[in-house]
Amino acid sequence: MKARYKYRCYPNLIQQVQLAKLFGCCRVVWNDALAHCIQEFKANKKKPSNTELQKVFITQAKKTINRAWLAEVSNIPLQQSLNDLNTAYQNFFNSCKGKRKGKTTRHPKFKSRKSKQTARFRKGGFKIGQDKVYLTKVGKLKVHWSRPLPNPPSSVTIIKDSANRYFLSFVVETSAEHLPKTENSTGIDLGINTFATLSNGEKILAPKPLKKNLKKLAKFQRKFAHTEKGSRRREKARLRVAKLHAKIKDIRTDFLHKLSTDLIRRYDVIVLEDLNVSGMLRNRKLSKAISDLGWRQFRTLTEAKCEKYGRDFRVINRWEPTSQKCSNCGFRGGKKELNVREWTCLNCGAVHDRDINAAVNILNVVSETVAEVTQPITKVETIETEILETPVQLSLFNEVAGGQSETLNKTRSRRKSTRKKAVANNESSTRLESFKQLSLFD
Ligand SMILES: [Zn+2]
């Protein structure tokens, strides 16, 4: 298993100049090669091979007058830059052919002087010392080892972010370490007011760094917009905006790291709800609040840590009615308005906090599916998702839609009843309750 270990580093002024040169060279090599590939494509020719590109745009380019300065930096990052371009193209081609999972990959883009700068050194290009890291033709960089490296790394990337901070990111081979079993499981309900509610009733609040700094950020951005292009003032103003953005991101990431680590220490099984984050971000009223929280990042971190420490990570179907069902008796009380924070079950009389109830239901969904493994669930589920995709987008924020979705729901509840006889029992009503269960809208 490969992992990245990132450390802050502090190059001196001379090294900063040398690094700027290096970043520039990597960028030029990439951009030259990319421009050539695009040209070849327009001429209906095949994409040149990686070896060919390396020969033309590194080895031969060094001999020309207007690219002679490529020789002033280490050759390794230049080769890595073109290797990356090759990978980017492969990902793009595979995505076009449908061989690649997930989101479609775009065509590689030109690199800009203004965005984050990187250069990668593989073995032979760097050496690790006591409190310094040596990079070829750059020198010994002072580094802050915030934690030890577990193994000798296979490569290191030097990064300069838009807030002018430098980082070294090492790729290290790590093995999964299994934490001792705790025999505890938890379901987690994510929300806007309370970041996470655990099925044991625990509520975790998140820092909202963006919300807190919104005014300041707006002020900085306004000042930046009023500066003259290319002026020193503008660069200063840009840096101030970038630094604040970096601070906001750091606060968020730090919180999410601590929370996810705490959770995987305490639980063997962690269950989350599959939230349609990109869909929700389209809601302008909520998008800022949601991106401020970092749900997606929370899921990614938790999943990665579960894999590393041998924990069971589960995600339940987005359409499970987790916030409508009574976690005590299974009775479906129907859709609840957003402001209803507490409700009483009509069937058994249990009083529920809506977030805790949802978290318990999220956990229960997994225990139920484990109990009925004999049933072919997966196939039915994919069909459901397909059918429901469009109406849900519409009904997410609205009240119950018209007749069309009504019929859809009928077919759905029929399917569902065949799937889960035990759970569905008396629930074949035509209500669209299953549509509104994203806990944050409740
Ligand atoms: Zn009940």
Describe the protein's architecture and organization.
The protein is an alpha+beta fold and 442 residues long. 46% of the residues lie in helices and 15% in strands. Strand 13 (342-344) and strand 14 form a beta hairpin. The longest helix has 35 residues, at 232-266. The radius of gyration is 27 Å and the shape is elongated. The chain starts with a strand and ends in an 18-residue tail after the last helix. Bound molecules: zinc ion. Residues 326, 328-329, 331, 345, 347-348, 350 line the site of zinc ion.
In a nutshell, what does this entry contain?
By secondary structure, the chain is of the alpha+beta class.
What's the number of helices? 12
Strands side by side in the biggest sheet: 2-6-7-1-5-4-3
Total strand segments: 14
Biggest sheet layout: 7 strands, antiparallel
- The helix-and-strand class reads alpha+beta
State the domain count. 3
What is the mean predicted local confidence, pLDDT?
83
| Unreliable stretches covering 5 or more consecutive residues | 373-442
Query: Roughly how many Å apart are the termini?
Result: 40 Å
User: Which compounds are bound in this model?
Assistant: zinc ion
Broad shape: elongated
Binned, the helix content reads 40-55%
Report the β-strand fraction as a percent range: 15-25%
The helix/strand series, from N terminus to C terminus, equals EHHHEEEEEEEEEHHEHHHEEEHHHH
